[in-house]
Write a structure and sequence with these properties.
311 residues, alpha/beta, six-stranded parallel beta sheet, 10 helices, 39% helix, 16% strand, elongated
Length: 311
C-alpha cells in the first residue's frame, strides 16, 4: 500500500462505525490523510484507498463516488470489507489498481469472476488499553452523546477536584439517528479535554450493564440546556435504582425534585456530599420519589382519565 496517498471512508466519525474506525487507524499507520467520501479534498489526491461498504451508500453518495471515479488522474485502490455482487462493487473493482480482499470468502467470490485480489485482514481496533483504576468517587452518566452538556461537567469537575479524592467519570453514550456525527465527535473531544485522566467512554451499554453501573457508582450525573424535565428517562432510571443524581434544575423542573432531598442541583452545590448517611438518605428519597412516578402510577392515571372521558 506504499502508493496510497489518502484513505477515503464512508464518513469520518469512527465512533459510529467499525469500518470507519479501521480506516482512521489505517490512515494513521500509513501516515496519510483520513477523509470522508463527501470531503471536497478527496478529489485532490491521485492514489486514494477507498474503504467502506458500498451497499451503505445513499444515492447522493453513489453519485459523489461516480464523480470522483471520473476525476482525471484518479487511480484508486479498494479495500473490500464484504462482497454482495452489487454493480457498484463490480465497478469499483474494475476501476481499482489494487483490490484488497478483507477475507478469503471475498477473495474467492472475486476469483470466480476473474478479478485479481490481494490478501488483507483487519487487526484489532483497541487503542485505549487503560485499566479502569479504582477511585474514591465514581460518576456514571448515560444518554445520547450529542446531549452531553460539557459546561455542566466543567462545574462537576471543579467539585470533584475540590473534594481532594481520586475520581473516575464513566460515560455510556449512544448517537441518535437525527444528531450530527460531527456534533457527537466534538462532544467527545471536549469531554476528553475536561478530564484528561479518569474519563472512560463505555460506548452504548445494554440495560444490564447500565444497571450494574447505577448500582456501583457514587453519583449519577446528567445535565440539560435549561434544566431537568419530568420526561427524562435517564434520570428516572437512575432514581428508580437509588442513584444519587447530580443534575441542574430550573423553574420548569418537576416540583417533586428538591435539591439536597432526592437530587443534587449542581448550581447549588459548594461541595460534594461525602457522608455515607447523607448519601443513603438521598438515595432512599430518590427511590421513594421514583415510586410515585412509576409505570403503574402513570398507567393508572391514564386509565382513570379514560374512564372519566367515557362517562
Amino acid at each position: 500500500m506504499s502508493g496510497v496517498d489518502c484513505i477515503v471512508a464512508h464518513h469520518s466519525n469512527s465512533y459510529a462505525s467499525g469500518v470507519s474506525r479501521f480506516d482512521e487507524l489505517l490512515a494513521g499507520h500509513l501516515g496519510v490523510p483520513f477523509l470522508a467520501l463527501h470531503d471536497d479534498r478527496a478529489g485532490d489526491f491521485a492514489r486514494p484507498l477507498l474503504s467502506f461498504k458500498p451497499r451503505e451508500l445513499a444515492s447522493a453518495e453513489v453519485e459523489r463516488l461516480a464523480s470522483l471515479l471520473a476525476t482525471p488522474g484518479w487511480e484508486p485502490s479498494v479495500f473490500l470489507h464484504e462482497w454482495t455482487g452489487a454493480p457498484i462493487e463490480l465497478e469499483l473493482c474494475r476501476r481499482a489498481t489494487t483490490v484488497w480482499a478483507g477475507n478469503a470468502e471475498i477473495a474467492a467470490a472475486l476469483d470466480a469472476l476473474g478479478l485479481a485480489t490481494e490478501d488483507a485482514w483487519t487487526p484489532g481496533l483497541l487503542t485505549d488499553r487503560r485499566r479502569m483504576a479504582p477511585a474514591a468517587i465514581t460518576v456514571f452518566s448515560f444518554g445520547m452523546a450529542h446531549k452531553i452538556q460539557t459546561r455542566r461537567f466543567q462545574q462537576l469537575r471543579a467539585l470533584l477536584e475540590d473534594s481532594g479524592e481520586s475520581y473516575a467519570i464513566r460515560v455510556s453514550s449512544a448517537i441518535h439517528a437525527t444528531s450530527s456525527l460531527h456534533e457527537s465527535e466534538s462532544v467527545y473531544r471536549e469531554m476528553a479535554e475536561l478530564f484528561p485522566t479518569g474519563l472512560y467512554f463505555l460506548g452504548n451499554l445494554s440495560d444490564l450493564a447500565v444497571y450494574e453501573h447505577l448500582c456501583n457508582s457514587t453519583f449519577f450525573a446528567s445535565f440539560f440546556p435549561g434544566g431537568l424535565r419530568a420526561n427524562n428517562t435517564s434520570v428516572a432510571a437512575a432514581m428508580e435504582e437509588g442513584a444519587v443524581v447530580i443534575t441542574n434544575l430550573d423553574a420548569h423542573s418537576p416540583a417533586w425534585l428538591e435539591h439536597g432531598v432526592n437530587v443534587l442541583d449542581v448550581d447549588r452545590l459548594d461541595r460534594l456530599p461525602d457522608d455515607l448517611l447523607e448519601l443513603r438518605r438521598i438515595s432512599a428519597a430518590a427511590m421513594q420519589t421514583a415510586r410515585t412516578r412509576s409505570w403503574a402510577v402513570l398507567t393508572d392515571r391514564m386509565r382513570v382519565h379514560d374512564r372519566q372521558d367515557v362517562t
